[in-house]
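At your convenience, could you comment on the folded chain following this short note?
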Amino acid sequence: MNGHTLHSIGELARRTGTTVKTVRFYSDCGLVPPTHRSPAGYRLYDDGAVARMDLVRTLRDLGLDLAAIRQVMDRERGLPEVAAAQAEALDVQIRVLRLRRAVLTAVARRGADPEETNLMHRLAKLSEAERQRLVGDFLDSAFGGVGTDSVFAGVMCSMTPHLPDDPDAEQIHAWVELAELAEDPEFRAHVRHLVEDLAAGHLRDAPPRPHDDVAAIVRDVVAPAVAAGIDPASPGADPIVADLTARAAHLLDRGDPAESRGRLLARLERVNDPRRERYFALLAVINGWPRPESLQPVLDWSVRALRARIRAETPPRTIRS
């Protein structure tokens, strides 16, 4: 036998740390064929079979199927090419598993019922194109027909989520919750109202400016009062409320101070909806942006301050006997 050492199937199994059944299986598949047969017909393997068996087991442990392994062993495809294809397939599987894990975690955390579980699963597994359609439909419901696209392009961009190709669990959770909000008819109507407020307060066909954002005005004017602990219903808050009303006057219809305060109160109550702040918090997680500063303290203070002054200015109702 030309001086080559030949091994029985049992010896090959021992040398490769596997079982006779496994060696026979790969031998029957043609991946580790016997080199010779003994006079009695038993399979015999040379030293190269040890290396082939080790490679087959390694590739199987890495998840390659038998067809791909055969191509590598027969040199029909290079190992790097096959490995790259397998890595790409694993990336897909990992993304799917992360989505499933995120949905299951959210179901457990929120105590979701079957209907909500189905909705979360559907939203989590949307393709990139499907996500874009969902977001586009939401933004169109908010901005469609209000000014021109160029006017609100920056605002729309700042409200657009971009889930990365390889999101982490927190981003997936955030996407599912944001998508639920975006599909909620009540939230859509609320955002539409906010956009109409914004459109009413700036020049026609001109992009909104920083001082058109009533929330930003409130933050700048009221934050020092909140930090100082000034009671919004106290006389000490009067100059702050006057300054706030004056700075926001260009966003409101002209009228006497009392009417302006009433319109400003209605607008701030809409801005102060917790769903609005939640949307932008989720958006920051999805897009990898810094978490936005909460405006709830300054909005709460402003709403309370305006309500207190409107109540004080409203004459008591006369009860007729």
